[in-house]
Amino acid sequence: MELQTNTIKEIKRLKIIPEFEKSAFTIINHLQNSKNLLLVTHTNPDGDAIGSCLALYHYLTQKNKNVTFILQSPIPTNLQFLNGIDKIHFLLNQNNFKISPDFDTIVVLDLNDISRLKTLRDEIELSKATKIVIDHHQEPKDFADYYLIDTTASSTGEILFKLLRKDSSINWTKEICESLYVAIMTDTGNFRFERTDGEVHRIVAELIDYGADPVKLYNEVYNKIPFNAAKLMGLGYSKLESYYGGKLVVMPIRHKDFLETNTQEEDTEGFVESLLSIDGVVMSILIMEVVERNEIRVSIRSKGDYSARNLALNFGGGGHINAAGCRFQNADFEVTKQKLVDKASEILY
Fold it and tell me: H-helix or E-strand containing 66?
C-alpha cells in the first residue's frame, strides 16, 4: 500500500482536553483489560519518546500482555544502552507496512498530531483498535479514543509515571525506572528547563529509590559520544554562524559532512543543546541536510522567554517554548537557512 495521507480527512484540534485524573483511571483500566498492544512514537525519537515507550513496554509485559513497539527511525547512539532496545521493531523506509487486526489497542506516546507518525499515519487512523494518546505537547489533534495530556508537564515520562502509579500492584522494576528517569532527564535538559519543578524532583527521587542509578544514566546519556560523532561535532563547530550580536548561532551540517565523518543524523544528538553554552547565545539552530529523504531537518533550542516553538511554528513545526523543530521538503539549504535566520529576528527583538 502506497502512503495516501491525502485520502485521510484533515485532523482538527482537540476542543476539550479530558480531565487528567479521570482519564488516567480510565486508561490504566483499559490497558489492564487489553491483550495485544502496539506502541508508537514520532520519527527521530528523543530520550522522552524512547524512554516512555520502553517503560510502558516493560510495564505491559509485566502484566503478561502481548506488546509490539515500533520505531520508524534509528535510535540515537546515547540511548542504545537502555534495556529493551532489542525488542523494538524497526520500520525504516517502508511504506507498505500493515497493522495487524489482532491489535486491540494502539498507544501513541510523546506526540499529539497523527501526521508526525509519517508512514504509519494511514494504517493507524484506519485501524479499528482503541487509540490512546499520552503526551505533554500543546494543541493536541482529535484522532484518538482516549487522551492523557498535561501540557504543563515536563515530559511524557512524567505523565506516564503518574499513570502507572494508578496501578497499586505495579512492580517498579529497574527497567521501568531507568526508562522513565531517562525520559524525564532528557526532556528537562538534565533538570535545567523551566518545567523542572519540585514535583519532577519528587518523582525522580522515587525512581532512584526504586533502583534508577542517576550517575550511570547521566554518564550513558551525556558523557559518551562515538569518536566519529565527536569529529562531526567539531566540524559543525568549525562552521558556526553568529547573528544578531551573538544572540543566535546556527550550526549547518551538510550531506558531505556526514560522509566525511562516516556518521548519520542520529549522531547529532545533543549538538544543538551544546550551542546554548556559548556566552551570549539565547537561541541555537541546528540545520541538517538529509539527502536520503530530500529533507532539511531543523532543531531549535532557546533560553528563557525566547520561544523556539514560535520560530518552528512559522514553518509548520512545533514543540516546546525552549525546544522545537521543523522540516523542509525538497528545499534549498542556503535559502532555508536564511529564512530561519530572518524569522528568528522577530523573536529575538
Answer: strand 66-71
C-alpha count within 13 angstroms, C-beta hemisphere, residue 91: 20
User: Which residues, including other chains, have CB under 8 Å from residue 9's CB and lie 6 or more apart?
Assistant: none
Q: Are 268 and 284 in contact (CB under 8 A)?
A: no
> Is it the case that residue 92 has pLDDT exceeding 90?
no
Domains of the chain by start residue, with CATH = 5-222 (3.90.1640.10), 227-348 (3.10.310.30)
Query: Which of the residue ranges 4-13, 66-75, 211-220, 267-276 would you say has the lowest mean pLDDT?
Result: 4-13
How far apart, in whole angstroms, are the C-alpha atoms of residue 212 and residue 206? 9
Which of 5-19, 27-41, 93-107 holds the top average pLDDT? Answer: 27-41
Which residues are CB-neighbours of 331 under 8 A, at least 6 positions away? 296
149 φ, ψ (degrees, to nearest 5): -130, 135
DSSP state of 188: T
CB contact set of 64 (below 8 Å; sequence gap of 6+): none
Q: Which secondary-structure segment (H or E) carries 327?
A: strand 323-329
Residue 4, pLDDT score: 33
